Every structure is written in structure tokens, then in C-alpha cells.
Amino acid sequence: MTNLKSVFIFLVILCFACTSTEVKDYQPKRIANIPDSAFWKGGVDGGNWFLVKAINSHKNIVDISIYNDQDGSLIFTKAFMLICRQDKQTIIGDLEKQINFFDGEKIHFINQNDIDCYLSPKD
After folding, report:
1. Residue 89 CA to chain centroid, in angstroms?
2. Cα–Cα distance for residue pair 81/43, rounded to 1 Å
3. pLDDT tens-digit readout, 25-40
4. Which of 28, 29, 30, 95 has the largest CB neighbor count within 10 A?
5. In whole angstroms, what is the distance from residue 7 CA to residue 103 CA?
6. Given a cut of 80, is residue 22 above it in pLDDT?
7. Contact 60/98 with Cβ under 8 angstroms?
């Protein structure tokens, strides 16, 4: 019985050791037409490459080009405005650390310290 217990504990430890960093650090291969200064955000199920072209921190507006991670095609280049809950404001800073994902319309930020912000296309 002790042998079976040891094998079970070993398998549980092995499972935890193999999962955490590989998924978190996943990034697809950069396709030739993706600019070198673009960064990727997403997960093993997909994501996008983001190229920050300009930031106006006084107006909380950023110009970003978004590229498809599968074929490298340019999805669009647009100006986005930072939108936050009124009681939990933040500023545009290091977008590579702030951006979580693009849902096809908005660029969502990583929620930190109850700050819930996103970038919305500016019309």
C-alpha cells in the first residue's frame, strides 16, 4: 500500500510540474510580416500581435495595429480610448504588461487591484 501511495504522490507532483509555465509562457512563432516591435497576447487557444504606434497619455488614447497570430495579416490600425470604471482609474502605461486580450472589438486589460479597464475603438 505504501508503494502505491508513493507512486500516486509522484504522479500528482509530476502533473503540477508539467502544466504551469508552458501554458503561461506560450507564444506563437512570429510570422515574417509581424513587426519586430509588436508583442503577442493570448493563450494556447489563440491571440493577437499588438503594435503600439503612438500614445497620448493626456487624452488616454493609443494608436494600435492588431495582427492575426495565425497568418500575420493586419486586422486593423485604429485609435483606442482607455475606459475604466469611475471609481477604479488607471493610466496607459506599459501596454505589453497591461493588455490581456482582444475580443474583436475591445482590447481588455489585465484586472489588477480591482482596476477594470479596456481600450475601446475611438470613432
Report:
1. 20
2. 24
3. 678 888 889 999 999 9
4. 95
5. 43
6. no
7. no
